[in-house]
Amino acid sequence: MLARDYREFKSILDARGVIFSFSGYLSEGILYSLGDALRHKMALEDTDLTTVKKVFSVFIEQAQNIIRYSAEKVQGNLGKAIELSSGMVTIGTDGDKFFIVCANTMLNEDVPKLKARLEQLAGMDKDAIKAYYKEQLREPPEESSRGATIGLIEIARRASEPIQFDFDPVGDKQQFFCLKVSI
Fold first, then answer.
1. Residue 105 pLDDT more than 80?
2. At what angle do helices 148-158 and 126-138 cross, to 10 degrees?
3. I need a labelling partner for 147 at 20 to 30 A (CA). Which of 65, 67, 123, 154 fits?
4. pLDDT class for 138, splitting at 50, 70, 90?
5. Whole-number pLDDT of residue 147
């Protein structure tokens, strides 16, 4: 029964084109290892260098957003301060394109601002995104920002299609956030 359940789970991922999936607690160290595995996998498949760079860059930006903004965190001190953030990272192919999907829980109070930013980016064409990026580089970072303003624009710049996103309520205080980027 155990093997069958997980074989079925893997079959579902395979059917959706998933080549790489991680769910759990992320840290910068885990991010580095996952990125290394992703680069090697794409190199073994002779993926062109431009695509590898775009996929890798979006993967890093999205995973860093999980590390910085996930509402599910564990913290402690093991001789030094440790913080791990929970989320999901999935990379796959759909036809001739790669997709990168990241997801994590977030606090309800953080949703409106993120949703407005994503709606703005999703509604822009490539030229508008490029101009907006240059404009934002000249602006001072927002007080509460930990880098997501420019990071989201970077993601949209590398995407070959408008970014997709969704929120799903989790209890009274959180939402499950999902962001999909195609390259």
1. yes
2. 160
3. 123
4. confident
5. 54
Long-range contact pairs involving 17-21 (C-beta distance under 8 Å, separation at least 24): 17/92, 17/93, 17/94, 17/99, 18/90, 18/91, 18/92, 19/91, 19/92, 19/93, 20/89, 20/90, 20/91, 20/92, 21/88, 21/89, 21/90, 21/91
Q: Position 135: which residue type?
A: E
Q: Which residues of 54-80 are buried (b: 16+ CB within 10 A; e: fewer)?
A: bbbbbbbbbbbbbbebbbeeeeeeeee
What does the block give as tokens for 46?
A: 């002779």
Task: Please tell me the distance from the alpha carbon of residue 89 to that of residue 12, in angstroms, as a whole number.
Answer: 16
Over pLDDT 90: what percentage of the chain?
Answer: 84
pTM exceeds 0.70, yes or no: yes
